[in-house]
Design brief:
The protein is built from 23 helices and 16 strands. The chain has 737 residues and is of the alpha+beta class. Among the domains are: 196 residues, Biosynthetic peptidoglycan transglycosylase-like (Penicillin binding protein transpeptidase fold), CATH 1.10.3810; 157 residues, no CATH class. Strand 6 and strand 7 form a beta hairpin. GO terms for molecular function: carboxypeptidase activity. Keywords: Carboxypeptidase, Glycosyltransferase, Hydrolase, Multifunctional enzyme, Protease, Transferase.
């Protein structure tokens, strides 16, 4: 006897199927009555538990907004990056190939335009087939599938992805709810609207939601240009995105596509010739995997990261950071930014030249950032590390910005801070040509600094005095500068002792206020620089960001008008709703004659001072900065139209790039114009000069306004003539050329 079930077993199996059939039939009766029988007739029916359950099901489908990618655009409209959790590009039905509609209805719901949301005839046929042991058939109409997708989308937005109901895992209750909601949808929308909405929401692939994204992903074409065989493949895919995935299951995908074509032929939607040609065609995939996030930005990934953080830090985009992130990933935002691709590409080339990301085992950082004076617009932001990429130096820290914007703790600014002392000097009525005594090198703990805001709990801190333990006298980078000189010369030659001679005659609290007026603050905490720490006069106390310094120097360029840096010009969502974005809030914060006096001195830096090799052929002003052992080096400079900060240093701690044996493979000495010694003028200055020579002519390169004579005229400053001459070194004060 052949192996198989016994007669008794077959009888039991047949009986079980019959009982199941009866149960399903009863369910279909309930469903049919609930959907088709008028209310009066229903009220006459016996009040079964099934009917009670059905009556209590919701009748309204809450159709929330589709999850749509957000786009970040440069100032010229070019796309920098996209953000999404579902790659989707909604399009109208008339923007889809007619084959898309025909093939989908043929295989999924041929009676779509005839039923009222639930195809009872098709449902009964599928149930009978399934009970009888035939191949499993689906019973959901397009409208029911749309309802299921809307419910899943709502769960996904709520972070409940694990609870999404899949076609093969839905119970009777899920099916009933879906059916009743489908009827409600049919009453609210036209058939074409339902079909359009379905084709825009349906899942095809983890890389493609909706038909437009699917067409772009699989073949790099628009949905309106899909041919017959491509449309048929997509129509077959919705029933089993994993089972019929053409990338991983090409054989099954081809068979499913051809089945769709067979059905279309049987339904006379296509001719025999069309069918035969399409069946013979290969899948011919041309995959275009979408890229999202700043790591995949077409350019300026760190600027992109800065913009992303601007969204996350702004309550205009949601009550919580999670809300703002959800809006960015799902809200279809168009974020227009200030980035000028011309400047960005030039800046990127320079930082990569200074320290290539693939040939930098010692991890020397190089960055450039530019703002536009008078507007605060961030036009370029580059650094030599990368957010991703095999073989690159991967670093998530944005060297150019504050910690809250994706940066680190900032970098000590060295002598780029000296213009703040100069501005305070001029603000209090002193002059650029006043004579100061740069021979003075000792400032003991009881030195009579002026500090109107000092208290018993917060007084002046610090000393330069080699008669004290753990202290030493103030030092310049080079001998020969311990003498009398003008205040201007002390700044443009970057003489530490001259800077302290100036600071000793001004109110340190006013110096702190001038720094705040220029927007200078601690990159880690956002707090003002503590001007009562005397090492701050030459940049030796707290970390600041290059963006902060570029914005501060831009204030000098505009004769004292400070503009907060901004990276975003507008944000709108898919419904053209405008969101409030950070503003530059440009305002006069220092006296115009003070700014003009600073300009006149800092122009001399590029003519005869610490950056005399770094002129750019148009009117420009700048200041070099170098901390002890060249751990952090700077060149911050500007024209009338651009203010740029160039920084080179070690983001991971104190190391000297001059120690060649400690920096194997370091490659940033190759411009042929400098010695191997690294300071603000050599490496950072070289990058600044090469960049600004190309970038500056694209913006205003006019002359700076000359300062009035009341700012220039010189005298010898009384009480500024005592001298003391120890020469012990001090961290963060060695900038001099």
């Amino acid at each position: 006897m052949a192996a198989g079930k016994s007669p008794g077993a077959r009888t039991i199996s047949t009986l079980a199927r019959f009982l199941t059939f009866l149960g399903v039939s009863a369910l279909c009766g309930v469903l049919t009555a609930g959907l088709l029988v008028p209310g009066a007739a229903v009220s006459a029916m016996s009040a079964t538990a099934s009917m009670d359950f059905f009556d209590e099901l919701p009748t309204e489908l809450e159709v929330g907004p589709l999850s749509v990618p957000s786009r970040v655009l440069a100032a010229d409209g070019s796309e920098l990056a996209t953000f999404f959790v579902e790659n989707r590009q909604p399009v109208k039905l008339d923007q889809m190939s007619p084959y898309v509609k025909q093939s989908l209805l043929a295989i999924e719901d041929s009676r779509f335009y005839e039923h009222g949301g639930v195809d009872v005839q098709g449902t009964v046929r599928a149930l009978l087939n399934n009970v009888a042991g035939g191949s499993t058939q689906g019973a959901s109409s397009i409208t029911q599938q749309y309802v299921n997708n809307v419910l899943n989308e709502a769960r996904s937005r709520a972070g409940q992805d694990a609870s999404i109901t899949l076609n093969g895992a839905k119970g009777i209750g899920d099916k009933l709810r879906e059916a009743k909601l489908a009827i409600a949808v049919e009453k609210k929308y036209t058939k074409d609207q339902i079909l359009e909405n379905y084709l825009n929401i349906v899942f095809y692939n983890p890389n493609a939601y909706g038909v437009e994204a699917a067409a772009q992903y699989f073949w790099g074409v628009s949905a309106k240009n899909l041919n017959l065989q491509q449309s048929a493949m997509l129509a077959g895919l919705v029933n089993g995105p994993t089972l019929y995935n053409p990338v991983t299951q090409p054989k099954q995908a081809l068979q499913r596509r051809n089945l769709v074509l067979d059905v279309m032929l049987a339904q006379k939607k296509i001719t025999k010739a069309q069918h035969d040609a399409a069946v013979k065609a290969p899948l011919a995939l041309k995959l275009n995997a979408p890229k999202q996030g700043c790591a995949a930005a077409s350019r300026a990934p760190y600027f992109c990261s800065y913009v992303e953080q601007q969204i996350y830090n702004n309550a205009a985009f949601g009550q919580t950071r999670e809300d703002r992130q959800a809006l960015l990933l799902r809200g279809g935002l168009t974020i227009k930014t200030t980035l000028d691709p011309r400047l960005q590409d030039t800046a990127q080339a320079q930082v990569d030249r200074i320290a290539p990301p693939r040939a930098n085992p010692s991890k020397i950082g190089s960055s450039l950032v530019t703002v536009q004076p008078g507007t605060g617009k961030v036009l370029a932001m580059a650094q030599n590390s990368r957010l991703t990429g095999q073989g690159n130096w991967i670093n998530e820290i944005n060297f150019n910005v504050d910690k809250k914007d994706g940066g680190g703790n900032g970098w000590q600014p060295g002598s780029t801070y000296k213009p703040i002392t100069l501005a305070t000097w001029l603000d209090e009525g002193h002059h650029t040509q006043d004579i100061v005594n740069a021979a003075k090198r000792r400032y003991p703990a009881d030195f009579p600094w002026k500090a109107s805001c000092a208290t018993a709990d917060h007084g002046v801190v610090g000393a330069y005095d080699d008669t004290l333990q753990d202290s030493h006298d103030l030092k310049n980078a080079e001998e020969g500068w311990y003498r009398r000189m003008t205040a201007a010369e002390g700044i443009y030659q970057s003489i530490n002792t001259a800077t302290y001679a100036m600071a000793s005659k001004v109110d340190l609290c006013n110096m702190g206020q001038i720094a705040q007026n220029l927007g200078i603050h601690n990159a880690s905490t956002g707090a003002p620089i503590d001007s009562l720490k005397i090492a701050s006069f030459i940049g030796g106390t707290e970390g600041v960001s290059p963006l902060t310094m570029a914005s501060a120097f831009a204030t000098f360029s505009t004769d004292g008008k400070y503009c907060a840096p901004v990276g975003i010009t507008s944000v709108t969502d898919r419904n053209n709703k405008n969101y409030e974005v950070p503003q530059a809030n440009c305002r006069q914060t220092i006296k115009s004659e003070v700014a003009q006096g600073v300009n006149s001195v800092l122009q001399e830096v590029l003519v005869r001072g610490s950056g005399y090799l770094r002129g750019i052929g148009v009117p420009a002003a700048a200041k070099t900065g170098t901390t002890d052992n060249s751990e952090y080096t700077w060149m911050v400079g500007y024209t009338k139209g651009l203010a740029s900060a160039s920084w080179v240093g070690f983001p991971d701690g104190y190391r000297s790039p001059n120690a060649r044996n400690g920096n194997p493979g370091a490659q940033f000495y190759g411009d042929g114009t400098t010695s191997e010694y690294v300071d603000g003028a050599t490496v950072a200055g070289g990058a600044w000069q090469a960049y600004m020579r190309e970038a500056a002519p694209l913006y205003d390169t006019g002359d700076f306004t000359d300062p009035p004579q009341s700012v220039v005229r010189g005298t010898t400053v009384p009480g500024n003539d005592d001298d003391n001459g120890s020469s012990t070194s001090n961290r963060n004060d060695d900038d001099n050329g």
